[in-house]
Every structure is written in structure tokens, then in C-alpha cells.
Design a protein that fits this description.
The chain is α+β, with helices and mostly antiparallel strands. It contains six helices and five strands; from the N terminus they run ααααβββββαα. Bound molecules: heme C.
Length: 161
């Protein structure tokens, strides 16, 4: 009985979760243009495995955040500057995902070209969140939680305002 119940829970991706999945992977502006999930999407931003197991209000706070902890303001010696998510690096180069471009553009950058990298205060994740209604945000968060934990619970829009 236990295993059968578990099977039902796993199988029962609700209509809300399916809507959230479609929004997450939307090819034009979806979260998956910057976050990989279940082997799909592009890993520009952080892995959502840790966040996905938190309560929906906490996930919503992260998506609506106006401050960043990973994104850097990059200044090149050429005087060009842009907000970037740092990726893989070796002694000579660093992968910078340029967030001033849509979709974010990976630039393998020679470290000697970099003048400085400092705290970003121009690029805000909240600008992405603004494109969604509370209902859509609830759908997306229900999907993220389901994808990470397998919990098919619904999320009410009032939880993610
Ligand atoms: C343009 C790229 C981009 C898009 C689109 C995007 N994100 Fe992000 N996301 C990021 C980056 C970069 C960060 C790291 C921000 C920082 O420096 O703290 C991030 C951080 C997060 C975090 C916090 C993760 C952590 O561990 O701190 C969550 C949750 C999140 N995004 C969810 C989403 C969801 C849900 C969507 C779709 C509604 C989305 N993101 C769309 C780039 C993006």
C-alpha cells in the first residue's frame, strides 16, 4: 500500500505543475534559459536543487530578490563593463556569463583582460520575476518544488506574493 501511494504521488503531476513546467522551459523567456533542471536548460545561474526543497514563500523571496550574491560587476581593461555570473575558471581564463545580453552570453575571458570584478548593483533578479503574475509564479514554484523533491503539492498565489 505504501509503495502504491508513493507511486501515485510520483505520478500525480497536477495541472498546476504542468503549467509551471511549461513556463519554466518557455523558449523565449523561461527560467531554463539560465537554470538547468533535470538535464534540460542552461546552467548560467545557480543550481536550484538547494532552493527547491525550501518552502514556497522562501523560494519566492529568492526569485524576487533585488540583491545578488554571485553576480559580479565586471570591468575590462578595454573599459567595457557588464554584469556577469562567473562560471568555470582555470589559471588563465574565466567563463563569464554576460547578463546584459538576452539570452546570457558566455564569454571565455582571459584573466589579464579584467580590470576589476566587484559587487553587482545593476542586474536584478527581481526584474525577471516582474514578468510573471502571482498565479504564474505559484505555478513555477510548484513545478520547481516538484522537480526537486517529487512533492506534487499545489502552491497558492497568496504564498508567493
Ligand atoms: C537571465 C538569467 C536568469 C533567468 C531568466 C532566471 N534566473 Fe534565476 N538566477 C540567475 C542568476 C544569475 C542567479 C544568481 C543571482 C545571485 O548572484 O545571487 C539566480 C538565482 C536564482 C535563485 C536563487 C538561487 C540561490 O541558490 O541563491 C532562484 C531560486 C532562481 N534564480 C529561480 C529562478 C526562476 C524560478 C526563474 C524563472 C522565473 C529564474 N530564476 C530565471 C539567473 C537567471
Amino acid at each position: 500500500m505504501f509503495w502504491f501511494t508513493l507511486f501515485l504521488l510520483q505520478a500525480a503531476a497536477s495541472p498546476q505543475i504542468e503549467r509551471g513546467e511549461a513556463l519554466f522551459f518557455d523558449s523565449a523567456k523561461g527560467c531554463a534559459s539560465c537554470h538547468a533542471m533535470k538535464g534540460r536548460g542552461t546552467a548560467v545561474g545557480p543550481d536550484l536543487k538547494g532552493m527547491g526543497s525550501l518552502a514556497p514563500p522562501a523560494i519566492a523571496v529568492a526569485v524576487r530578490s533585488t540583491i545578488t550574491s554571485y553576480v559580479q560587476h565586471v570591468k575590462l581593461k578595454s573599459k567595457e563593463s557588464f554584469p556577469a555570473m562567473p562560471g568555470a575558471k582555470d589559471e588563465k581564463t574565466i567563463d563569464l556569463y554576460d547578463l546584459s545580453k538576452t539570452p546570457a552570453q558566455m564569454r571565455k575571458t582571459d584573466r589579464t583582460e579584467i580590470e576589476s570584478m566587484s559587487n553587482n548593483d545593476t542586474w536584478k533578479h527581481s526584474d525577471i520575476a516582474k514578468k510573471y503574475t502571482d498565479e504564474q509564479m505559484a505555478d513555477i514554484i510548484a513545478y520547481v518544488r516538484y522537480a526537486v523533491t517529487g512533492i506534487p503539492k499545489s502552491v497558492d498565489p497568496s504564498e508567493v506574493r
